From TrEMBL, chain A:
The complex comprises the extracytoplasmic solute receptor protein and the two transmembrane proteins. It comes from Planktomarina temperata RCA23. InterPro entries: DctM (IPR010656), TRAP_DctM (IPR004681). Signal peptide: none annotated. Belongs to the TRAP transporter large permease family. This is TRAP transporter large permease protein.
UniProtKB/TrEMBL annotation, chain B:
Pfam families: DctQ (PF04290). This is TRAP transporter small permease protein. It is a multi-pass membrane protein. Residues 62-168 form the Tripartite ATP-independent periplasmic transporters DctQ component domain. The gene is dctQ9. GO terms for molecular function: transmembrane transporter activity. Keywords: Cell inner membrane, Cell membrane, Membrane, Transmembrane, Transmembrane helix, Transport. Belongs to the TRAP transporter small permease family. It is found in: Cell inner membrane; Cell membrane. Its main location: membrane. It comes from Planktomarina temperata RCA23.
Length: 438, 193, 316
């Protein structure tokens, strides 16, 4: 077999391993290792790579942002920021038709502005909002679907771990990507609110009513949200203003939320240990996938497959828009089965060189940022598309009385809103690139 | 035994968490020091030159080599986080296609996966050890603080070795599960990202 | 081809060193071998790893060849640092010749013993690029300046700046965000890193260079030994002194187009005259003493190396 054939054969091999439940990081690692064996004829090379590559992957200054953002999200919850956000949003919106669900989306968006992870946002806001939704007569499927969708705002609104990984993979500016994600993130929240209002019109029985809250109480609740605003302004604003690097921003954010949690007596010895353990588990999982992907991508580069695919696509003269649509569709389909980070790490080294070579009438940097935001959205849709949607599982696990099938049914309204948003952003790149005009 | 492994993994993860916290504090001090340094050279320096010179002599500024310390520290932290992920089946996987298979087949599959995982993690720890030895023999240091890089490798090795031991242990448990036909450890992927 | 080698490096394929130096060398080798040798080039760390690992990747046989900044493995190749001492080198051509001769005479044997060294060169004059005008060392006070190697950082510290260690690819973002106030790099790489768009002030020196940095082109020793004698000769004929001089002079020649970008943007370029440059050289002098002292600790005669390097550079 030629190197090119070995590289191409690695795709089905990887898929088979992943589908027989081999952990995704391990699968990429193994295929990379065996692939290197076939291309070089010995195990010396992959073993030699291990001498320094695990250490250098884990000792990355830019990637140290990942555990820091995870810790920051936990501290924010311990500091009561998630419940403060939900109470404020609920006091303004709760009395409307479907208002508590809308409030949950609003609170998710707020929490997303200080949390870089989707599952953490879903889980945190689920704990806060799910009991309220059920108490006021919102149906099980409606409640769980709303929170699962709201969770994706954790990633769509900056800061965002997936965007950090994309920025590192494609050597783009993290601050610019965060800025570009801002308007699409707000549009996502608005789209979900519209999806909710459509759903309650079609299914009025699925939502109960709640009495309006006096304005004085509303503003009192709103006032309690100030730490969230402060941390968001400091972290995202500081990164963009150049007060510090993204990693420094994450550290300042973690320290800030940790301090607020301590002030609010949420940070005790046991909750701190709990935060460490959860951060440890998620970080280890993410870094192991990154390690496996690095190993696999190094092997792929050696086989020249990414260059050949890029050359092929460019030389065929396909319409750039058709290529882009196919790639986005691919993510939507695979998102039904795989998690977002794995998909990004697995596919960006193949798709990115293709996309930036195509003529969209934009500079390469503009394409890279626009494509990054589009990919971010479609992989996040994967978190709420049946059958495998991590956010759906997380929220459903909190409400055992609701069958997963009911969640699946309602969540399609939110998926529809996501797809509408993707079409809008593909058609009008200027929406994404609005803040980046020099 | 199982309790011991879990406790060791938890303890290691807490050590990693503490180091991560130290890095966060270090970065914050460095950021504050850098800003103050700028102010002392800027308007504070022009308004209160004496105070400014005194503070600058004290060394108010960014922490020398903060970048290097973060790199070494985060490597230790991630290696220290791995054992917990291993013992609690925290690695992301796709189980939709295997969910319908009979329990027996699933157990055999899990045994196969965890045996391979153990081999991989043992190799990683062993090669990290070899990497440490070569860094030691070449005398590589960091740029600014100029501490030997093999120190950072050695710190990371503690987590890598515990991960390898735990992976070996988990593979053993899976073999027992296969033989006895009952679950001992969880197979659920970790959902708490 | 009978023998296929993988050459990995960290800069993008279109940068000066990969496209104007390494490609030329590799094409010559391939051609002279009559197609029996093939050198696959992987830029921008495509095959994995980080720049400081390149040398180890060759040693461990992960890749077969690389060119790299020697200073990326601080402390491992102390003798090469003689060329990185402030205000020692005048011109990249003679300096590259001197560097190669010293490599060939003993440094390669002593410090690169487990590698086949094919070339060694230095870049053109190191230039200061900063967000404010820098004309005297005291202008450096309170400025965070990025340096490329151990000795460059030692010099920056001596001159009063706060040295910041970060990899080259991080420089543009750090500059644009104000994380650093300036960087020291030769003109040649400023174009690819878009430095003239990020800062408006550049400081050049007259006479000896503020500093330079050493590069080597190396090959896995076993892979070289496994070649038949005629192909070994092909590689050696295209490498060594002549190639090293070519590499140094080529890299320095590409400083001009790099500088033109800053000129065309209307940036402020200050060229310090001989007297002004001498003030800087004086301020940087303690770096010499510290380095000689450190070499003594390693059992090396630093002063003799300085004398030898100076004599070889003057002889050319
Ligand atoms: Na976020
Ligand atoms: Na899905």
């Amino acid at each position: 077999m030629s190197n090119l054939e070995i590289g191409l054969a690695s795709f089905p091999a990887l898929l088979i391993l992943i589908f027989i439940r081999v952990p995704i990081g391990l699968a990429m690692f193994l295929v990379g290792l065996v692939g290197l064996y076939f291309t070089t004829g010995s195990f010396n090379l992959p073993l030699a790579r291990l001498k320094s590559e695990t250490f250098s992957t884990f000792s990355s200054y830019s990637l140290s942002i990942v555990p820091m953002f995870l810790l920051m999200g936990h501290f924010a919850t311990l500091g009561g920021m998630s419940s403060a956000l939900f109470k404020a949003a609920e006091s303004f919106l709760g009395h409307r038709k479907g208002g508590i669900a809308m409030a949950a989306i609003g609170a998710c968006a707020g929490f997303g502005s200080i949390c870089g992870s989707s599952l953490a946002t879903a889980a945190t806001m689920g704990r806060v909002a799910l009991p309220q939704l059920r108490k006021y007569g919102y149906s099980g499927g409606f409640s769980t679907a709303t929170l699962a969708a709201g969770g994706t705002l954790g990633i769509l609104i900056p800061p965002s771990i997936v965007l950090v990984i994309y920025a590192i993979l494609t050597e783009q500016n993290i601050a610019k990507l965060f800025l570009a994600a801002f308007i699409p993130g707000i549009l996502a929240a608005l789209g979900y609110v519209i999806a909710i209002s459509i759903y309650v019109r079609l299914h009025p029985e699925a939502a109960g009513v709640k009495a309006a809250v006096p304005y004085a109480d509303r503003f009192a609740a709103l006032f309690k949200v100030w730490p969230v605003l402060l941390v968001f302004a400091l972290v995202v604003g500081g990164i963009y203003q150049g007060w510090f690097t993204p990693t420094e921003g994450a550290a300042v954010g973690a320290a800030g939320t940790g301090f607020i949690a301590w002030m609010n007596k949420g940070l005790t010895r046991s909750t701190l240990i709990e935060s460490f353990l959860v951060t440890a588990k998620s970080s280890a999982m993410i870094f192991f996938i990154i390690l496996g992907a690095g190993f696999y991508n190094g092997f792929l580069a050696l086989t020249q497959v990414p260059q050949e695919i890029s050359n092929f696509v460019v030389s065929q003269g396909f319409s750039p828009w058709v290529v882009l649509s196919i790639i986005l569709l691919f993510y939507l389909v695979f998102g039904c089965l795989m998690d977002s980070l794995s998909m990004i790490l697995l596919t960006i080294p193949i798709f990115f060189p293709v996309i930036v070579e195509l003529d969209f009438g934009m500079s390469q940097e503009q394409i890279a940022i626009w494509f990054g935001i589009l990919v971010l959205i479609v992989v996040e849709v994967g978190l709420i598309t049946p059958p495998v949607g991590m956010n759906l599982f997380v929220i459903n696990a909190m409400d055992r009385s609701t069958p997963l099938a009911q969640t699946y049914k309602v969540v399609m309204y939110f998926v529809a809103s996501d797809i509408a948003r993707v079409i809008l952003l593909v058609a009008f790149p200027a929406i994404t690139l609005f803040w980046l005009r020099a | 035994m199982r309790n011991l492994a879990t406790q060791a993994a938890r303890l290691m993860a807490i050590c990693g968490g503490l180091v991560l916290t130290l890095l966060i504090v270090l970065i914050c001090i460095s950021v504050v020091g850098r800003s103050l340094n700028g102010l002392l050279h800027g308007w504070i320096g022009s308004v209160m030159p004496g105070l400014s010179a005194w503070a600058l002599d004290l060394g108010v500024g960014p922490i020398n080599g903060d970048f290097e310390l973060v790199e070494a520290g985060v490597a230790f932290a991630i290696f220290a986080f791995l054992p917990l992920c291993q013992i609690s089946a925290g690695h992301a996987s796709v189980d939709i296609f295997t969910a319908k298979l009979p329990m027996r087949i699933n157990r055999v599959l899990q045994l196969g996966i965890d045996v391979i995982f153990a081999i991989v993690l043992i190799s990683i720890a062993y090669q990290l050890y070899n990497g440490m030895l070569s860094k030691q023999s070449y005398g590589d240091t960091t740029f600014l603080l100029q501490f030997p890089i093999w120190w950072a490798y050695a710190a990371s090795l503690s987590g890598a070795v515990l991960t390898a031991v735990i992976a070996f242990y988990v593979a053993g448990i899976r073999a027992v599960e296969c033989l006895r036909g009952e679950d001992i450890l969880s197979q659920e992927p970790g959902l708490d990202l | 081809a009978d023998y296929s080698f993988n050459l990995q490096s960290f800069l993008p394929a279109q940068a000066t060193i990969p496209s104007k130096i390494i490609d030329v060398w590799a094409d010559n080798v391939e051609q002279a071998s009559g197609g029996r040798i093939e050198i696959n080039r992987y830029a921008a760390m495509q095959l994995g790893g980080k720049p400081p690992e390149l040398i180890d990747q060759v040693l461990d046989g992960v890749i077969d060849m690389t060119w790299n900044v020697v200073g990326y493995t601080p402390g491992r190749y102390p003798s090469t640092e003689v060329f990185e001492l402030p205000f020692l080198v005048n011109d990249a051509g003679p300096a590259s010749a001197a560097f190669w001769k010293m490599l060939e005479a003993d440094i390669a044997e002593r410090e690169f013993g487990n590698l086949k060294v094919l070339g060694g060169w230095v870049h053109g004059p190191g230039v200061i690029h900063a967000n404010k005008a820098v004309t005297v060392p005291s202008d450096f006070n309170g400025m965070k300046i990025r340096g490329a190697s151990r000795q460059v950082n030692a010099m920056l510290k001596e001159l009063g700046a706060t040295p910041v260690g970060m990899p080259v690819p991080a420089v543009p973002e750090a500059l644009s965000k104000g994380v650093i106030d300036g960087t020291t790099i030769p003109w040649e790489v400023t174009k690819a890193l878009k430095v003239p768009e990020l800062v408006e002030h550049h400081t050049e020196f007259t006479g000896p260079m503020l500093y330079t940095v050493t590069f080597v082109l190396v090959m896995n020793k076993d892979k070289f030994a496994a070649l038949p004698a005629d192909l070994q000769a092909v590689i050696e004929d295209n490498s060594g002194l002549e190639f090293s001089i070519f590499a140094g002079t080529t890299q320095q020649a590409y400083d001009t187009p790099g500088r033109d970008v800053a000129v065309n943007r209307g940036n402020s370029i200050v060229t310090l005259d001989v007297a002004q440059s001498a003030v800087w050289a004086e301020a940087a002098q303690p770096v010499y003493g510290a380095w000689i002292e450190e070499m003594k600790g390693r059992g090396l005669d630093g002063q003799a190396m300085i004398d030898q390097a100076t004599a070889l550079m003057n002889a050319n």
